Amino acid sequence: MADYETPKLLADVPVVVVPNIKPGAMSHSSPYVAKPDHNIPLGFPGELVENWQEAAIAKMGDILQKYRSIQVYLDSCVKCGACTDKCHYFLGTADPKNMPVARQDLLRKVYRRYYTFAGKYFPKLVGATDLTKEVLDDWYSYYHQCSECRRCSVYCPYGIDTAEISMAAREILDSIGYGQKYCNEIIAKVHKIGNNLGLPGPALEATLEDLEDDIKTDTGVDVKLPVDQEGADILLITPSADFFAEPHIDGLIGYAKVFHAAGLSWTLSSYASEAANFSMFIGSYDNMKRQAERIRKAALELGVKRIMVGECGHAWRAAYSFWNTLAGVGHGAADDDKYARMLQKQLDPRFPVPQHICESTYDLIQQGAIKLDKSANDHRRVTFHDSCNVARASRMGDMPGGQFIIPREVIKAACNNFFDMAPETIHEGTFCCGGGGGLLTDDLMEVRVKGALPRMQALKYVVDEHKVDTLAAICAICKTQFAKVLPYYDFPMHMILSVHQLVGDAVILGSND
Amino acid sequence: MSFLTVTYAVLFYAATAILIGGLAYKISVYARTPAPLKIPTTPAPTTTSGVVMRMGREVIFFESLFKSSKWTWLFGWMFHISLALVLIRHLRYFTEPVWFWVSWLQPFGKYAGFFMVLGLLGLWSRRVLVDRVRYISAPSDHLILALLVGIGITGLSMKFVAHTDIVSLKAFVLGLMYFDWQPLPADFNLLLHLLLVAVLMIIFPVSKLLHAPGVFFSPTRNQVDNPRETRHLAPWAAPLDSSSAE
Ligand code: SF4
Ligand code: SF4
User: Fold this and answer.
1) By residue range, what is the domain housing residue A498?
2) Which residues form a coiled coil (chain A) (predicted)?
């Protein structure tokens, strides 16, 4: 592991101080490069192609024609600097290339050189440069120091979203065989086996049976975790981390208890056993679609009426914003849209598709269909972390901002002691956990620890002020990341929990067998 | 017709053609390029009228900038609002008789010039003094500021220091518009002012000034947040999305 220090937290302030820039502070950070085994199943060249320069520039041209976002964003930045202090990776590392605008500029300077009049004829004047190996390596390094959290896009006067730029850059890198191992290896597993863990059907079934036994021992109630049950009403798609370890698995138990208490008919799918869609992180439309199609196929085969998504941030973005487009998983397809209608006519129009597990639990609480005993969580003092992709790239409920209200209402229905972090660090201004966007890998530990700084600072403030001891989240990546980085900042690793663990601990199990 | 008049007349025809042609081209590129996925920065409006309001707040009040940096917002907003007033004030050179609301706004436009230069100097000082903003500034970012400050100062000096012959100037401008050229007053301040304006018009479509049309095409700001309710399809992706990938 590289030699670095965990940044120090300050006393009595919720927000970190903006550092002076330290050029090159993180230039050594780069994740492992993907090998042919990881690349080929995704349709990418096995390794860096010989004519990479030419190929990368051509790919850039292709992307410019396909994505209005990229075309408009590369042209429109006025270098006002408003985004410069908004990125947690800049705040935590002080490396100026981690300022959103500077991160964009890595791509923009090449765009200008090859695709604009000013950059072709006056490169020095507008800061345009040739695509050299050095620039390419800078791309590889710094586009893997962006968690695609969209915080910068909230604050940019033109809505310029560096996440879009990072995705485009990674797509270019992948197209020349210079992709990242962590993401590509995982996507290949989903294509082959169906989930990020590479957990095959029988292993999944065994895990779920064990969990049923555990719940029975704990509560004396037969709570089921059904899989591949044809004719069930609800198909639950959840991040596979939920099948794997704490704190995730306690969230899964929470979902099951809620379904049980409400008497809902539901099932998991061993074919579509992953809500995460890492293809989004690498900007690969084709792979993203291939992953989304698994959900469509499972829903068709099982004949379900509703599709629900478990606790995961980027998965909720992919589901909420993209599934309808990519695979017709939603409502409102045109009458002549045979492909989408095939699934949509089977779905219950009274429920949103896809629906977030928190939306469903919230409704059940509102309707009195489940009862919670808040005192079950009286030993906890809870705060909530808004996950980026839920906060800034999707919604819950039927009004803007429902994604902030609904999870908090669910938490408040499940426990008596809830305290929000400082207003500038939550809701749309929330700070990323530091591990999103395909950075949740040990080879990026330094970036992850430093990038967590602003969140940790806000957490410290609420811990000091209100003696908070529990950090609840609705994202598998956030949970994994926090479990890993909390100890670096002297917080206990186990303070991170699933929101549905709080619910699961409080829900009163009826006698629905 | 003097050489000077002819030069400036040709310059302005060329600058106008480049400005309009360039912008039309860029806008057509933005309009033609699809946004294949729904990517509004949320919370986002769930209706089209909501999006119009959001865009309105963004363009008129710089809502997002206000959230992010109060100083940049103050200087930036001061500059743009003043510029708008100044431009309106300049309409009197293009209209005969002058529209009533243009004359009504004259007194504001007159002083707006000061605020415009002040706003620009504020923005420029941030570009020099704040290390983060200095780092991201290319020579062109300073030059554009210099150009705008130059336009502002030469304009102000004609109003408040050495008056120029605005009657002949107006005749020149109207002459350009109706292809009936009239002599341009040979006043140094005026010539410099007009030259800088022409340069600004020419670089507009090939510079970051494209943020002006760009903001309206920004998918994070102009999309309706309704992906679950309607199936969003874009031309290149639609055939793909109407079949299975496997
Ligand atoms: S998307 Fe997030 S991580 Fe990436 S540059 Fe913007 S603020 Fe930083
Ligand atoms: S806030 Fe937007 S326009 Fe300003 S520097 Fe950042 S990306 Fe560019």
Assistant:
1) 371-506
2) none
Is the same domain home to A352 and A388?
Answer: no
Residue B205: count of CB within 10 angstroms of its CB? 21
Q: Which of A76, A79, A99 to mutate to test the pocket of ligand 2 (most atoms within 8 A of CB)?
A: A79
Report yes or no on A94 lying in a domain: yes
Asked if B231's CB is within 8 angstroms of A334's CB, the reply is: yes
pTM of the predicted model, to two decimals? 0.96
Model pLDDT, residue B231:
96
Please indicate, yes or no, whether residues A260 and A148 belong to a single structural domain of this protein. Answer: no
Q: Tell me, yes or no, whether A279 and A383 share the same domain.
A: no
Claim to verify: residue A239 and residue A388 sit in the same structural domain: no
- Using H for helix, E for strand and C for coil, what is the string for A138-205? HHHHHCCCCCCCCHHHHHCCCCCCHHHHHHHHHHHHHHCCCCEHHHHHHHHHHHHCCCCCCCCHHHHH
Among A residues 60-89, those touching chain B with beta carbons less than 8 Å apart: 64-69, 71-73, 75-86
Q: From A141, A159, A185, give the residue that closes a domain.
A: A185
Q: What pLDDT score was predicted for residue A1?
A: 46
Ranges of residues in chain A with a pLDDT under 70 are 1-2, 511-513
Q: Say how many CA atoms lie within 13 Å of A478 toward its Cβ.
A: 29
A235/A252 same-domain check: yes
Tell which of A70, A80, A191, A396 to mutate to test the B interface (max B CBs under 10 Å): A80
**Do A446 and A343 share a structural domain?**
no
pLDDT in the model for residue A513: 46
pLDDT at A260: 97
The number of domains in chain A is: 3
| B135, B214, B236 member nearest A72 (Cβ) | B214
Whose alpha carbon is nearest atom 4 of ligand 2?
A80
Q: What percent of chain A has pLDDT over 90?
A: 98
Same domain, A419 and A458: yes
pLDDT on residue B246: 57
My answer on whether A263 and A141 are in the same domain is: no
Pick from A185, A207, A223: which residue ends a domain?
Answer: A185
Which bound ligand lies closest to the C-alpha atom of B69? 2
pLDDT for B159? 87
In this prediction, residue B245 carries a pLDDT of 65
Query: A160 CB less than 6 Å from ligand 2?
Result: yes
- Within 6 A (CB) of ligand 1 lie A 86-87, 89, 100, 103, 146-152, 162-163, 166
Domain assignment present for residue A10? The answer is no
Ligand 2 contact, A156 CB (< 6 A): yes
Are B223 and A325 within 8 A, CB to CB? no
A407 touches chain B (CB under 8 A): no
CA of A161 to the centre of ligand 2 (A): 9
The Cα A109–Cα A73 span in angstroms is 13
Regions of chain B short of the pLDDT cut 70: 245-246
Residue A18 lies in a domain: no
Measure CA of the first residue to CA of the last residue in chain B; give whole Å. Answer: 73
How is residue A42 written in tokens? 């995704």
Atom number, ligand 2, closest to the C-alpha of residue A158: 2
